[in-house]
């Protein structure tokens, strides 16, 4: 009898943990669906993207790019810079392409909000980061920031 009771308690506690996982997965799917729904206003989609990012910080990088583009289109350049700066802190050192893209986005958004020192820092950081030949085009992006600043 004691064994049955112990098994029942373990089974019920396992159900509670899986219910949390299901609830989290349902929320993630809901936020993801609405984040990508182009019929919704851009502000609503950004809110769903922020909720998705808070719920699962390991969301795919292309969704960060989409959210960054939405923030840029809405004129929320500082939010975009903060998001990509925070993302740079969490990206692994070996994901060079994602790190370079994030650094470039920080530079563009800082330039747009007239934080020229931050933009130049990001641009020079892009240029001085070691990268394979396949990612050398990020130097061109950095030079665009520099050209805009020095014209």
The biggest beta sheet reads:
none
CA(first)-CA(last) distance: 83 Å
Oligomer: single chain
Beta content comes to under 5%
What is the overall silhouette? elongated
The structure class reads mainly alpha
CATH superfamily of the largest domain: Tetratricopeptide repeat domain
H/E series: HHHHHHH
Quickly describe the structure.
This protein is mainly alpha-helical.
Write structural notes for this entry:
This protein is mostly helical. The chain has helices at residues 2-35, 42-55, 61-73, 77-90, 96-112, 116-128, 137-150. The chain folds into two domains: 26-56, no CATH class; 60-151, Serine Threonine Protein Phosphatase 5, Tetratricopeptide repeat (Alpha Horseshoe). The mean pLDDT is 84.
Question: Topology of this protein?
Answer:
Elements: H1 2-35, H2 42-55, H3 61-73, H4 77-90, H5 96-112, H6 116-128, H7 137-150
Helix pairs in contact: 1-2, 2-3, 3-4, 4-5, 5-6, 5-7, 6-7
């Amino acid at each position: 009898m004691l064994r049955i009771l112990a098994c029942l308690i373990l089974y019920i506690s396992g159900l509670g943990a899986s219910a949390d996982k299901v609830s989290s997965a349902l929320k993630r799917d809901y936020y993801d669906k609405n984040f990508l729904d182009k019929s919704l206003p851009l502000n609503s989609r950004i809110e769903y993207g922020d909720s998705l990012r808070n719920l699962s910080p390991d969301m795919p990088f292309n969704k960060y790019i989409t959210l960054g583009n939405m923030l840029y289109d809405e004129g929320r350049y500082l939010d975009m810079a903060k998001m990509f700066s925070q993302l740079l802190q969490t990206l692994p050192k070996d994901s060079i392409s994602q790190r370079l893209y994030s650094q470039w986005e920080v530079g563009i958004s800082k330039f747009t909000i007239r934080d020229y020192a931050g933009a130049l820092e990001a641009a020079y950081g892009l240029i001085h980061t070691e990268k394979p030949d396949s990612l050398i085009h990020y130097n061109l992006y950095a030079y665009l920031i520099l050209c805009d600043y020095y014209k």
